[in-house]
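tokens incoming
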């Protein structure tokens, strides 16, 4: 009799477990449907403005350069374009050394397949945005609970900055998607997943770097973080995984650098690091001496005998590179007292300033608060523009408030989920690189917002007694 009761208890337990699993699946599908409807409806409505006016898809020099490079690839001219680099400043067709091939190749691929490069690329970017909303929702729900997943998915679905930027031919949306996938896979294998996740994370990050060089230091940063994590958690199996991530991510960088050494005459991934170094020194010199940036740039380059067009578009000899580095570093050392101040100001502008391209991409008048570019008088701004700007500010503010709550609770409990750790480190790395003096464009914020949303949503999964019950944790050092 006792045996029969025991069997009955086991049967009841199995039935209860099966019922709970079925209920959780229904809740998951319901939440997915909510986020999907929000993301698809908003992106569909907003995209009609972009499709109605092709000029809305090519705002700024970046978009024009990407489209030109894509057209030249389709026409069989190779990866290059006409630039003003002749002896007298005349236009000359030159192999591309400034931009990397990832995003132009994507546009060219769609143009080759469909005959139209712009519209399919915009649709593809919007689809990536929708997939990212659903992916973040599922990941947050599994790690931090149902409420965290639903909040994270809705925050991303209602992010008008991401919606607006997806309507423009810029690499930020594709790079942001690849970055998030790579970070999530890295967190997966750090939590005990297969070592193959490290290979996938590295390859996706490498493709992301080919799309936008802003992620170049990230493989090294992840390698270091994973090694420290392996030491703290006593997980030696993570050491080869860290190496795999780093090597896989830098393979495309190595290959493209070889191409540049053969075609452009300089072994480097692209010319952007030199350009950004000059940008930092130009801003510091201009602020310290009260002169324009143009005059400051002329002074710095006068020490090198190299023109700005050479630095930006052409490969330099080792001697020319040495002169540029020495001139830039000496200027930074002379003005080092204002370096951190300028970096903090640029970071604040990137994190908190309204994104003008969000409205421009929709063909709406914009307001520029301390942002370079044309501004519109507030009295002439439409009600729609003001509403979108207010909503964007509300979503951004909510994300930051929840993010700080998460960090405060982590410090208080001395517990840090692996997913939060890796998202935080990756977001800080991209933030530091994107907010260098003279930079800080709020558009770059869109690349890390999904990572910040994951951190923010973690605040809902906190258990005061045991820490984050749904995720692996790292004990914070005292």
């Amino acid at each position: 009799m006792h045996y029969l009761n025991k069997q009955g208890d086991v049967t009841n337990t199995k039935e209860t477990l099966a019922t709970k699993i079925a209920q959780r699946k229904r809740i998951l599908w319901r939440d997915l449907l909510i986020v999907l409807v929000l993301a698809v409806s908003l992106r569909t409505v907003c995209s009609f403005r972009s499709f109605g006016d092709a000029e809305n898809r090519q705002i700024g020099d970046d978009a024009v350069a990407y489209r030109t490079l894509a057209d030249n690839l389709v026409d069989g001219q190779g990866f290059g374009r006409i630039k003003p680099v002749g002896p007298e400043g005349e236009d000359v067709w030159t192999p591309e050394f400034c931009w990397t091939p990832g995003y132009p190749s994507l546009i060219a691929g769609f143009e080759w397949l469909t005959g139209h490069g712009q519209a399919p690329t915009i649709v593809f970017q919007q689809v990536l945005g929708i997939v990212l909303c659903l992916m973040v929702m599922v990941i947050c729900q599994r790690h931090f609970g149902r409420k965290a997943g639903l909040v994270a998915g809705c925050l991303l679905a209602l992010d008008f900055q991401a919606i607006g930027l997806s309507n423009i031919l810029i690499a930020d949306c594709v790079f942001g998607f690849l970055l998030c996938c790579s970070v999530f896979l890295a967190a997966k294998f750090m939590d005990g997943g297969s070592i193959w996740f490290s290979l996938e994370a590295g390859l996706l990050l490498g493709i992301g770097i080919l799309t936008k060089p802003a992620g170049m230091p990230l493989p090294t940063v992840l390698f270091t973080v994973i090694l420290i994590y392996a030491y703290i958690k006593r997980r030696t199996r993570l050491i080869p995984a860290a190496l795999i991530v780093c090597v896989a991510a830098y393979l495309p960088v190595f290959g493209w650098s070889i191409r540049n050494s053969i075609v452009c005459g300089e072994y480097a991934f692209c010319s952007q690091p030199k350009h950004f170094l000059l940008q930092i020194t130009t801003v510091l010199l201009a602020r310290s001496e009260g002169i324009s940036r143009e005059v400051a740039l002329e002074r710095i380059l006068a020490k090198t005998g190299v023109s700005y067009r050479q630095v930006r578009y052409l490969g330099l000899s080792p001697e020319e590179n040495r002169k540029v580095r020495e001139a830039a570093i000496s200027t930074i050392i002379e003005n080092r007292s204002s370096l951190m101040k300028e970096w903090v100001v640029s970071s604040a502008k990137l994190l908190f300033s309204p994104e003008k391209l969000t409205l421009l991409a929709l063909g709406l008048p914009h307001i520029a608060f301390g942002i370079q570019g044309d501004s519109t008088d507030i009295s002439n701004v439409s009600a729609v523009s003001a509403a979108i700007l207010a909503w964007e500010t509300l979503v951004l503010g909510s994300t930051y408030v929840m993010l700080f709550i998460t960090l405060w609770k982590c410090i208080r409990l001395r517990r840090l989920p692996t997913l939060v750790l890796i998202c935080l480190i990756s977001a800080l790395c991209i933030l530091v690189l994107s907010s260098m003096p003279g930079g800080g464009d709020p558009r770059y914020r869109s690349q890390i917002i999904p990572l910040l949303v994951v951190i923010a949503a973690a605040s809902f999964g906190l258990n005061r007694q045991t820490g984050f019950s749904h995720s692996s944790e790292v004990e914070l050092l005292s």
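note: The longest strand covers residues 80-83.
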